[in-house]
Amino acid sequence: MTDEVTLGCIVGVTVVDDRDDRAQTDLALRCRCDDLCVFEDRFDLANATFHVALLVLGRVVVAVFLQISEQSRGLDLLSDLDSTTGREVCELGGQPVVCSLRKLVFRHAHKGYRRPYDGISMSRAHRVAVIGGDGIGPEVVTEALKVVAASGVKLDTTDFDLGGARYLRDGEILSDSTLDQLRGFDAILLGAVGTPDVPPGVIERGLLLKMRFELDLYINQRPFSGVAPGHTAPHDFVVIRENTEGPYVGEGGVLRKGTPFEVATQGSVNTAHGVERCVRYAFELAAKRSRKHLTLVHKTNVLTFAGDLWQRTFTAVAKDFPQVSTAYNHVDAACIYFVQDPHRYDVIVTDNLFGDILTDLGGAVRGGIGVASSANLNPRRTGPSMFEPVHGSAPDIVGTGKANPVAAILSAAHMLEFLGEARAAEALRTACVDAPRGTTSHVGTEIASRVAKAAK
Ligand code: IPM
Ligand code: MN
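# manganese (II) ion complex -> structure
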């Protein structure tokens, strides 16, 4: 396996003690490595006390310890396995791997009885940090969590009081110690941050961008599907926005501020490494989709230094994906196509600032920013990824019940998918099609009941 392979989750472990028949103990592990690879193997173990180490990534060891003390004793009782549920069972480079023992079959012929345990869930709840934030953020997040609960997926949530309001209260934006706490979660669900009373940039840079940079959330994935105004056929495309570089890094400065001779510069930082990993992610995604078409969007005719790096990288990585057809659009032209011909797109890859602007347009084309979801991903899973609607905190409609929770619900769907809960994620997405109208909580309750019905 290559460096790129990440173990997403272990969905099934079957322990079969067949000693009577075969004089050995078998451990079959079926591991679904999320969307990157499927690993399936069966280990024959002559010894009843065994440690199985799965080598994944070529260097990260997932150690699955199922200690059976003696041939007859260790698996006598289900409780013996209970004591090693969830986190203790699986470790991925020091981080817990989601473990769900959906089907545990235990046949202990040695003791003269057979006991199948089917459908026993030993999965632990996913640990999710919830940052409701400001304005309508907490309102939409409440609905998103309501819908997730209806899907049956267990979340162990911890609220973090962060955002403009918190900053105004005690000055905390996102301290390093809070950031360290966040690192310990499986995912972060964020509503929206920003209050009119705080100067622009303080919360954006200090909280949102700090999380993106420090947690290395280098992919910002924003899907757009639906029927655009003036069209009859649906479109379905995804924007992959580089999320840790470009003009967002804050390179530059100001001289002689406030004078007629003021000088302000704001650079765009593009690294070969940063561009490559983003472009490669987009190709990998395109290769998995049915149309397999990837468009690079930039402004290579003006931003000749950065544009050249993006274009060369795109061309080089394309060689590894002969099955993916490619195209290039200047960003201004892409704005026209978003409105006039969104069907041409399948996957788009672009830099941080172009991606920011384009995805607001994508939201409008899709039928409103209230339904545009986004995922800030650390595809290497060296820390939690963060899921948030594209929209802001909309202080003007706080408390009116007008906030549309669909974007937050779809962001939660992406979170579930990333956590290995693909079925539940699909149920959430399906329930958001032809979303009901009404107040924020009415829409959430209605979608939750659709999800609950589907889960039955
Ligand atoms: C977004 C937002 C952020 C961005 C702001 C709030 C910093 O507009 O997520 O698109 O520019 O990335
Ligand atoms: Mn934006």
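# post-check
Residues 161 and 279 are 35 Å apart (CA to CA).
The first strand starts at residue 9 and ends at 17.
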